[in-house]
């Protein structure tokens, strides 16, 4: 679902490179309808469209696709030229190798490598040349390359594992939106592991489809949550957007071909619960609607299944630290 919202941490992290270069970030935030005060609330969240526009503005203002996190700039258009360089390759392996070779031509660019490990393939990003205290750029590169590769072959590449050289951050629960697969911190490298069979698959895209793809990428790749096959993603899809008609846990378990007890156990293992998933989905739908002026707050409360507007106000403040009215005022 595109309504899956993005934690304010990622907005703050995205701005760090621009701040380091003395850019007036409050003006950029206002341009995407994010009031700077919103970022003072750790629980605050923004809509994916806002985040995508923020990425585009940072690239434009800085004239740097690395957003100020690299030792050198990556001039606007570099990513697009890399895509044109690989689009005529016959297989994904050749395309990815050509892409890594393309970026290796730039001095002090982040080093991206593709290696085989038996039946597995690993895409590694070396962040040693980055000035990236929140690891925003290195994580962005992993997301962009994974989603680009999936687009090239016309199917989502299922990740076996994502590894990170650094310690697990406080916001690691948010990574389910980016890497809905096992994650390991404090590893020897920052990388993605997937089955090598994908590398032999033919490219299903061409210059015509690439032109359309580049109209919104890579910003859209970063703002869009992974439509992966994690249990949490599957449950969110089964719940859908109609809060008044949500199936109960037993019905969801039946659709997933498991017992309710097994479903509860799996959710506990992923650090979640069925109620928490419903709350997060309500939160994301609330933020989605509050960012638009066509519904009154009372109507939003009813759509989300709250019997009283006051209950919605209490819940929303618990989720984001702001009341619905205060959040809408910040947005506008």
Automatic annotation (TrEMBL):
Keyword DNA-binding applies: yes
Q: Could you give a GO molecular-function term held by this entry?
A: DNA-binding transcription factor activity
Query: What are the alphabetically sorted keywords of the record?
Result: DNA-binding, Transcription, Transcription regulation
What cellular component terms from Gene Ontology apply here?
Answer: cytosol
Domain HTH araC/xylS-type: residue ranges:
229-330
PROSITE patterns from the UniProt entry: HTH_ARAC_FAMILY_2
Task: State the name under which the record lists this protein.
Answer: Transcriptional regulator
């Amino acid at each position: 679902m595109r309504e899956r919202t993005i934690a304010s941490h990622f907005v703050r992290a995205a701005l760090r490179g621009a701040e380091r270069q003395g850019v007036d970030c409050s003006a950029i935030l206002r341009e995407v309808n994010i009031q700077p005060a919103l970022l003072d609330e750790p629980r605050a969240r923004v809509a994916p469209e806002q985040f995508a526009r923020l990425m585009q503005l940072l690239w434009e203002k800085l004239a740097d696709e690395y957003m100020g996190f690299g030792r050198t700039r990556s001039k606007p258009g570099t990513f697009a030229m890399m895509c044109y360089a690989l689009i005529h390759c016959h297989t994904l392996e050749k395309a990815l190798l050509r892409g890594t070779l393309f970026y290796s031509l730039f001095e002090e660019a982040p080093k991206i490598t593709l290696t085989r490990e038996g039946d597995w393939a690993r895409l590694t990003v070396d962040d040693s040349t980055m000035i990236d205290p929140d690891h925003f750029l290195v994580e962005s590169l992993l997301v962009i390359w994974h989603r680009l590769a999936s687009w090239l072959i016309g199917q989502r590449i299922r990740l076996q594992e994502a590894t990170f050289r650094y310690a697990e951050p406080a916001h690691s629960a948010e990574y389910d939106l980016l890497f809905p697969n096992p994650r390991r911190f404090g590893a020897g490298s920052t990388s993605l592991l997937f089955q090598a069979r994908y590398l032999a698959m033919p490219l299903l895209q061409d210059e015509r489809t690439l032109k359309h793809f580049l109209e919104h990428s890579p910003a859209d790749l970063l703002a869009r949550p992974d439509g992966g096959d994690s249990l949490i993603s599957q449950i969110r899809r089964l719940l859908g957007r109609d809060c008044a008609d949500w199936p109960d846990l037993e019905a969801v378990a039946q659709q997933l071909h498991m017992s309710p007890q097994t479903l509860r156990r799996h959710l506990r293992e992923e650090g979640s619960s069925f109620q928490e998933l419903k709350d997060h989905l309500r939160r994301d739908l609330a933020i989605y609607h509050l960012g638009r002026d066509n519904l009154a707050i009372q109507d939003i409360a009813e759509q989300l299944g709250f019997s009283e507007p006051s209950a919605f106000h209490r819940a929303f403040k618990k989720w984001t630290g702001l009341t619905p009215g205060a959040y809408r005022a910040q947005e506008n």
